[in-house]
Amino acid sequence: MTYPAGFWNNDTVREAERESIRTFVESCSEHLTGRVLDVGCGRQPYRAVVEKAGGDYRGYDRAGYPGNVSGRNHGAFWGGEEWDAILCTQVLQYVPDPLALLADFREVLAPRHGHLILTYVTNWAEVEPTDLHRHTRAGMGLYLAEAGFEVLRNESRAAIDLGGFLLSLGGGALARA
Fold first, then answer.
1. Which has the closest alpha carbon to 113: 34, 27, 177, 175?
2. Residue 44 region, left (φ>0) first, then alpha (ψ -120 to 50), else beta?
């Protein structure tokens, strides 16, 4: 998806980003079946996508995060359980060690058929003080491979055309455990 120059302001960029995330998640919906954990779920904007795909949705977000509706913390919620899919949108930028989190995901996904549906930022201003990382497609591919995933897709979700220069709004990856 590419957007025309002259269209942009803060609101239109944010809306285009949200639309690109939803489009990517929907394009992976065939893998959002069985037990699905949405890590960093906030207000659960993708719950309906998971449920429409036939998934048994469970949401998780940081205990103190204003958008958290699960009220649970990571270790107690997903540790030791097996998941058929993990959905994780726009979270890795806040994690001190993204590779360790991806390895944790790999450990709790069902072997050979568990899927990770992940979106990540590439070019953004800092969102808040805990915003730590930006990821390229090559870098995310390396992280996923090092965490033990088979990368099925790793692509730009959308871009803004700045007069011939395409500014990526972020990436999306689909990987199998």
1. 177
2. left
| Residue 111: partners with Cβ closer than 8 Å, 6 or more residues away | 177
Q: State yes or no: pLDDT of 71 exceeds 70.
A: no
Q: Tell me the CATH number at 124.
A: 3.40.50.150
Per-residue pLDDT, averaged over 157-168, amounts to: 85
Between CA 118 and CA 122 the distance in angstroms is 13
Tally the domains of the chain. Answer: 1
pLDDT > 90? residue 12: no
Task: Tell me, rounded to whole angstroms, the distance of Cα 57 from its chain centroid.
Answer: 15
What 3-state class would DSSP assign to 2?
A: strand
The answer on pLDDT for 138 being more than 90 is yes
Report yes or no on whether pTM surpasses 0.70: yes
Q: Which residues neighbour 169 within 8 Å (Cβ) at sequence distance 6 or greater? A: 13, 16, 17, 20, 122, 123, 156, 157, 158, 159, 160
Instruction: State yes or no: pLDDT of 144 exceeds 70.
Output: yes
CA separation for the pair 53, 67 (Å, rounded): 24
Domain span at residue 80 reads 2-176
- Crossing angle for the helix pair 98-108 and 137-146, to the nearest 10 degrees: 50
